[in-house]
Specification:
single chain; about 240 residues; four-stranded mixed β-sheet; 2 domains; binds S-adenosylmethionine; globular; YaeB-like fold; six-stranded antiparallel beta barrel; mainly beta; Elongation Factor Tu (Ef-tu), domain 3
Length: about 240
Amino acid sequence: MEYSIQPIGPITSCFREKFGIPRQPGLVKSAQGAVELFPPCDREEMFTGLESFSHIWLQFLFHEAVADGWRPKVRPPWLGGKKRVGLFASRSPHRPNFLGLSVVRNKGLRKTKGRLYLDISELDLLDGTPVVDIKPYIPYSDRLDTATSGFVQFAEEQVDVVFTADAAFACQCYQQSYGRDLEKLITEVLGQDPRPASQRCKQREYGMLLWEMNIRWLAENRHFTVFSVKKKGRENI
Ligand code: SAM
């Protein structure tokens, strides 16, 4: 049995590298992106009726996991990265067909410079992720009030995030230029604590890319201080 899949288009996302991406959709409300629709799926008629759904399912390829392959057992972050579970009991990107599934908010179609985009938010996807299908989320059948969630229990406690005056000012300048609330996005992303479980007790500096900005912060236990927000490639200026 062999089938080939042609992606319908790539994701444009605020997440420009894997570190910092939330572990599931819906956790970072300010996360924004779009599906850029490639022919033959760039026909507006294919989306007629979708505007009445607040959320959509995206099926996509974990394209940045392919090179590392997959293993039958994985260590999910929900278990502190210590215990192993079967791959099919996890949402790991490293799986036989590298297929992912996320419910994201539907922000509607947009045409820019002759290209068709479906704007989305609350995503957990890397920039460039190839999307293979889009479907409406239907609460009537998709919301399961009696479902149990095994070892994945409650949302983790948020970490406390503060900004130095310089970093807060850089976020204000960014908002004036791009119209995006970068300070809110950083606060929500860091609030999820992107550190690997093994590093959570250490005092250490970290960096991540959001949009075209390089963000640096100091982590001390569950307190983070964002001290640098600079355009990528201009960090030393
Ligand atoms: N909601 C999806 C699912 O359940 O299939 C994804 C869950 S997966 C645990 C989310 C993580 O996948 C993110 O934190 C990020 O590290 C990683 N990721 C996102 N996009 C990716 C891509 N295109 N290639 C590889 N890894 C990716």
